[in-house]
Amino acid sequence: MQPRHFSLRFYLFGGLLSLLIGVVTLTAPTALALSGKIREFAVPTDFSVPTGITAGRDGNLWFTEIAANKIGRITTAGVVTGEFATPTPGSEPFGITAGRDGNLWFTEAAFGVNKIGRITTAGVITEFPLPTNCGSSFGCGPNLITAGPDGNLWFTEGLGNKIGRITTAGVVTGEFATPTASSAPFGITAGRDGNLWFTEEVFSANKIGRITTAGVVTEFLVPTARSFPRGITAGRDGNLWFTEFDGNKIGRITTAGVVTEFPIPTARSGPDFITAGPDGNLWFTEFSGNKIGRISPTPKHKLAEFAVPTANSFPIGITAGPHGKLWFTESFSNKIGQLR
């Protein structure tokens, strides 16, 4: 089965196509509350398709522009102060994260590019080719990336069926195969247990993976069949929280591998990326539902949804930013959203 969403043409239409065809210690949310009010800021480059977003150590938000082949920088006031073209044309930058070195690190997901990029806060980009093509003429298909507890950057290789590790010097020091063949690892995050956790999105896998910093992989099956797990993040409760794009649920997995699922009120909402908010809740984008969702880790697991003002914006990436706000990308409306 051909994995989905490894290049722009698959990502933009894959979500719409899919619509057709334990015991844990809980941490109460902090007093910092988010109203759910949303502001939107236009990206200067037309049809850039903003996708991933992360908070930089410089106090700005940084985002990928998959169609424009750029990395964007936006201030907390909503002013885009830079768009930096990747050296490789047509590289389709996708996932992005802040490294411990103070730089931003991103994946270049286009077929045949097969690189990890690094951009300084001044906008200087360096690219690092992956050492193998993962047995595919299309390359390894790097998807999302996160800073690991070991100081390295860890990323998923969807076409290569591997988890990769790269140092802040740009040296790839490991590519670790997942036990399930053609599992298409996608989302990845650092857990509070010192491991990396990732999603395996294709229907034939339908699993959550855990990898130690030494490269040992364990997999856990998601109860809902063909759920298409996508984004994943670490919650303040010590668990990992993930989205089920086709299952229309939010999943929670303990570090022991016990999964619990919570349905989303909006049918076929397409939950995509997810992040831990400053209020202690988990916040996620609804790609098809055109909403931002919130679920509480407390026992009642209250779930709320907030409509994005621009219709058919198809939000994807989401991150916690400075000053207690959340930031997200609107792929089709070419905007960056702020929830406060």
What does this structure look like?
- By secondary structure, the protein is mostly beta strands.
- It has one domain: YVTN repeat-like/Quinoprotein amine dehydrogenase (Methylamine Dehydrogenase, Chain H, 7 Propeller).
- It is 4% helix and 44% strand.
- It is built from 1 helix and 28 strands.
- The protein has a 4-stranded antiparallel sheet, with no helix packed on it. Strands 2-3-4-5 form a 4-stranded antiparallel sheet, with no helix packed on it. A 4-stranded antiparallel sheet has the order 6-7-8-9, with no helix packed on it.
- A hairpin with a 6-residue loop joins strand 15 and strand 16.
- The longest helix is centred in the N-terminal third of the chain and has 13 residues.
- It starts with 7 loop residues before the first helix and ends with a strand.
- The relative contact order is 0.16.
- The N terminus is likely disordered.
Task: Provide a quick synopsis of the model.
With 340 residues, the chain is mainly beta.
Essential attributes:
340 residues, mainly beta, four-stranded antiparallel sheet, 1 helix, 28 strands, 44% strand, globular
